[in-house]
Structure to design on (407 residues):
């Protein structure tokens, strides 16, 4: 029981590093897009009163990566946000591996179930949206 | 307002929201949606999208700090995430079907209910009950560092907690919040998990729950990068500041702050919803 607890603590420590790294990278990418975005047209007006859906290239994983690579500031910010969304997903993947190493099949199963829901939302949800 | 002014003000507001959200275990989003819609006149869908993204930042950013303290329970979190993620997907699906007015009213009800349950004193049955069979089978019982050394605890009423977690997930997806309050209710009140373990495990789960609806939001175009940018950066810095306070603050004072904030926001959102502000 003591060794299992120690393993859990180590896994939690690694997860902490993973989460921090993911958030930090995401924030840096977002800021990397924010600097050119704010300097491009700082005096122009903003209006979020009425909703009109984002353009296609800022809505899908594929589109966002392409837009960011073309150097578009809003695309780069959106890529940072996508990395942020990916951070908890990476954490769940990591947990699945950690439970597998511990030989805890029941929790590998639970974790994969959570992972499936997350991946469906990110890649397949346009089917229901 | 021009781009610079708007970005700076939203950033400042989000910083405060992140600080409060992290301090109370609410996860920022609950303060953000009223802030963006009421003070910045942002459309509810954009507000929900930006809020949800920031919820992921808050959760992941502060979870990193909590994990080191040894309070959160990874198995309880993972098991209950099955309920919250499926709920979140369902909630996000509903967002497009439910009118904004109704979302605002539901928002208000959720906030006020959370405040009510968190203030209700539950009889502290510290007398040792026999461990719950299902919780034991799911390896949920754990321990955490207390002032008097390592304290062990048992977990009870797993199905009830799982059910409440599904609702918490659905509300998270519908309202773009972390549903931290309801997650704490499920763990602290239903499953009898110690408050500190509940709040930290809840914070840990919020990011995964929010990621489940974020995909749906993204493909619907609710996430505007120009709005989400100051919100995310502000909330992240604020939440990291809030985390430093949590470990030192007494549970009692924490709950008081928690309740006052959510009641005020609940009243505000319900009023706006009922008077057609959305």
């Amino acid at each position: 029981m003591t060794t299992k607890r120690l393993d859990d603590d180590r896994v939690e420590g690694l997860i902490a590093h993973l989460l921090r790294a993911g958030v930090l990278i995401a924030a840096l990418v977002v800021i990397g897009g924010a600097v050119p975005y704010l300097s491009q047209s700082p005096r122009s007006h903003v209006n979020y009163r009425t909703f009109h859906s984002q353009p296609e290239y800022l809505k899908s994983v594929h589109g966002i990566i392409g837009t960011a690579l073309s150097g578009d500031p809003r695309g780069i910010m959106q890529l940072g946000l996508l990395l942020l969304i990916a951070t908890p997903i990476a954490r769940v993947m990591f947990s699945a591996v950690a439970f597998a190493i511990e030989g805890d099949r029941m929790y590998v199963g639970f974790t994969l179930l959570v992972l499936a829901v997350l991946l469906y939302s990110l890649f397949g949800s346009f089917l229901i949206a | 307002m021009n781009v610079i002014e708007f970005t700076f003000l939203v950033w400042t507001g989000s910083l405060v929201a992140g600080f409060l959200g992290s301090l109370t275990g609410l996860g920022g989003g609950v303060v953000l949606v009223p802030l963006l819609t009421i003070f910045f006149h942002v459309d509810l869908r954009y507000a929900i999208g930006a809020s949800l993204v920031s919820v992921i930042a808050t959760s992941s950013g502060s979870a990193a700090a909590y994990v080191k303290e040894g309070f959160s329970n990874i198995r309880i979190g993972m098991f209950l995430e099955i309920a919250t993620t499926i709920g979140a997907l369902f909630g996000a699906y509903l967002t497009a079907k439910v009118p904004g007015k109704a979302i605002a009213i539901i928002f208000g009800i959720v906030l006020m209910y959370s405040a009510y349950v968190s203030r209700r004193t539950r009889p502290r049955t510290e007398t040792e009950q026999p461990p719950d069979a299902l919780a034991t089978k799911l390896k949920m019982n754990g321990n955490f560092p207390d002032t008097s050394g390592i304290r062990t605890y048992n977990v009870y009423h797993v199905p009830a907690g799982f059910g409440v977690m599904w609702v918490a997930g659905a509300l998270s997806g519908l309202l773009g919040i972390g549903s931290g309050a309801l997650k704490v209710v499920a763990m602290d009140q239903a499953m009898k998990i110690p408050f500190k373990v509940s709040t930290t495990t809840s914070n840990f789960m919020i990011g995964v729950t929010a990621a489940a609806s974020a995909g749906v939001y993204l493909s619907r175009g609710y996430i505007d990068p120009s709005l989400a940018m100051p919100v995310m950066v502000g909330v992240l810095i604020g939440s990291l500041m809030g985390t430093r306070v949590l470990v030192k603050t007494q549970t009692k004072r924490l709950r008081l702050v928690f309740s006052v904030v959510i009641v005020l926001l609940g009243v505000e959102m319900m009023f706006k919803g009922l008077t057609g502000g959305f």
Observations:
- Chain A has one domain: 2-39+55-127.
